[in-house]
Amino acid sequence: MSVRASDKMVEVLAKWGVDNIYGLPGDSVDTTIDALYRAQDKIKFTHVLHEEVAALSAAAHAKLTGKLGVCLSIGGPGAIHLLNGLYDAKMDHAPVLAILGQVQSKLLNTDFFQEVDTHVLFDDVAVYNKIIMDPQSLPRIMDEAIRTAIAKKGVAVLTIPDDIPDHMIKDNFTPNVDNFQMENYKVDDAQIKKALEMIKIHSNPIVLAGVGIKDAKKETKEFIEKYKIPIILTMPAKGLVDDDHPYNLGQLGKLGTKPAFEMMQKADLVIMLGTDYPYAPYLNKKVSAIQIDTNADRLGKRRHVDVAIQADAKEAISRLNELGEPVKERPFLDEAVAKIGQWHSWMHDVYTKKHTGVLPSLMFHNLSQSAPSDTIWSIDVGTSTAFGARFLTAKSSQKYTISAWLGTMGCALPGAIAAKHDFPDRPVYAVAGDGATAMVMQDFATAVRYNLPMLYIVLNNKLLAFIEYEQQSAGQQNYGISLPEIDFAKVAQACGGIGERITTDEEFADAIKKYRRPDKPVLLDVAVTDEAPLPGKIMMDEAHGYAKFGLGHVIDKKSLPELPPMKEILRSFL
């Protein structure tokens, strides 16, 4: 029996559970689009308006669900546009498949219109990268690409000349779905007991947990409570243990809290759970360490570890909970709890200070208080990430997605589109700056077109605000950071959604109450005041940078620069 290669390829995708593909059609991928047309009852095609949004949406789908995300584009310029979103997937270890068109096989290597050597172009981003030359091999290679992306938690790229899927082939391939299983690492009880002994003999243990605990939220909470250990969560793991849990010290680093920094430095044992945390200046390397991770190449990668356990976090932590004796008291934890309590009091001072316009810290706090317990957060890069880290109280019942390692602007809207596709019954809140929004605002129309109700909030201060403070902390004068004045509310209305301009705290409070669970896409264009996203702990080089900036400002502008309240500066520095 014969079948069209494109139809068999789509069948393979469907058998692997793919039910949605983000992309744009075009000449070098039209035969694949035609096959998707014939399979509309199995796989949806979400037609976005920019290929970068397609890739970022596919990456967000993978992060939010743990399942394969798929994006599609023509070759040449469309494929190039995908690269940014695919690097986001690569760096956040999200399984994504990119299907790329290409000129017809007979035209390859003739310098034809839009011919780009995608096999070379995508080599660095991909864990699997093939160009299809034989129609009969298309289903098999598609199956292999999917398995590799899932197994290696990375990007698989297939470049398909447009004539290849149009051939008739023998229908003799069965996808390996039923035979596929992820590697299951046996938990070594000897290593578990060694880890427990280390926890027993150290008085100041601290946990640093990453997204590797996403399937072990309950076990991690039990672990820190049983052994009385404070926990720090990496930024992409925010909310996996409730932000308001008394043992949770927040994040570590520039976007983190001062208690997280201080208690990390005071710790005598660091327990790393499912994280490849890279920021060396914040990671205490002078003390003993335990690390649990499924990837052997990450064990001991960032620092020496005394006990390295290659295992699934859920299984390893469950075994730690089963075999150990509970700790009745730990003064180190008491100190940590007191410090984070004081930190929350300081943050209250920050978001209640006198101000004009809409204060970002207060805006995030109020949004957090208003959000339903099953909210999915999609947070963009820059001050959105910084204020989200500080003032959004994320819950383990919620989901929180960012561009963690690549830190690419414009990720919030694609993330919200994916979130609403994947979880249509859950509220989706996205927050982005005006700079990030300007990069992808055309795809608010995609949210409208596919009826994806969401609350999208723009921090509009006509400024690349995070870069403003990056420049200052480096001792540089602010330059090239202003943005044009765009009425994003009118853009939303022009796209067919709801758009409102917000200029006061009271208007914002009313709006988030009104649109708590919107029935269509809503954009709030919020005129925020320029509020400094100060680090939780100002390091000495940053203090020198701010001093250099201030002196340069006085010399250049003949005036003192506007600075955050001195109380906030001193709390972060001392």
From TrEMBL:
Location of the Thiamine pyrophosphate enzyme N-terminal TPP-binding domain: 5-118
GO-annotated molecular function: magnesium ion binding; pyruvate oxidase activity; thiamine pyrophosphate binding
Documented EC number(s): 1.2.3.3
Key words of the record: Oxidoreductase, Pyruvate, Thiamine pyrophosphate
Record PROSITE patterns: TPP_ENZYMES (PS00187)
Pfam families named in the record: TPP_enzyme_C, TPP_enzyme_M, TPP_enzyme_N
The Thiamine pyrophosphate enzyme TPP-binding domain, residue ranges: 380-526
Origin superkingdom: Bacteria
InterPro entries: DHS-like_NAD/FAD-binding_dom (IPR029035), POXB-like (IPR047211), THDP-binding (IPR029061), Thiamin_PyroP_enz_cen_dom (IPR012000), Thiamin_PyroP_enz_TPP-bd_dom (IPR012001), TPP-bd_CS (IPR000399), TPP_enzyme_TPP-bd (IPR011766), TPP_POXB-like (IPR047212)
Residue ranges of every copy of the Thiamine pyrophosphate enzyme central domain listed in the record: 192-320
Primary enzyme class: oxidoreductase
Extent of the signal sequence: none
Record family assignment: Belongs to the TPP enzyme family.
Protein's name in the database: Pyruvate oxidase
